[in-house]
Amino acid sequence: SFIVDGLHPHDLGTFLDHDGVAIRTGHHCAQPVMDFYGCAATARASFGIYNTRAEVDKFAEALERTIKIFS
């Protein structure tokens, strides 16, 4: 899970979705811990042995593009 400063995870998820990249956003069934740390939500990219290098690269490129839009 990760946070991008100045960008709400739900907005991040929406922008990545427009680039064809699916991530999870929210409290990921860890709301008590999120409340403890004062964190409303995080983004999470899930990778498995079935993911290709091209998919990981697409995620990284879409993430960089989205961060540039909001910076």
| Mean pLDDT across residues | 93
Question: Which percent bin holds the helix content?
Answer: 40-55%
Q: Structural class, please?
A: mainly alpha
Cα-to-Cα separation, first versus last residue: 21 Å
List the helices and strands and how they pair.
Elements: H1 9-18, E1 24-26, H2 31-37, E2 42-44, H3 53-70
Antiparallel strand pairs: 1-2
Model description:
With 71 residues, the chain is mainly alpha-helical. Helix content is 49%, strand content 8%. The chain contains three helices and two strands, in the order H-E-H-E-H. Strands 1-2 form a two-stranded antiparallel ribbon. The longest helix is centred in the C-terminal third of the chain and has 18 residues, at 53-70. The protein is globular and about 35 Å long. The two termini are 21 Å apart. The mean pLDDT is 93.
In a nutshell, what does this entry contain?
The protein is built from 3 helices and 2 strands.
Q: Keyphrases for this structure?
A:
71 residues, two-stranded antiparallel sheet, 8% strand, mainly alpha, globular
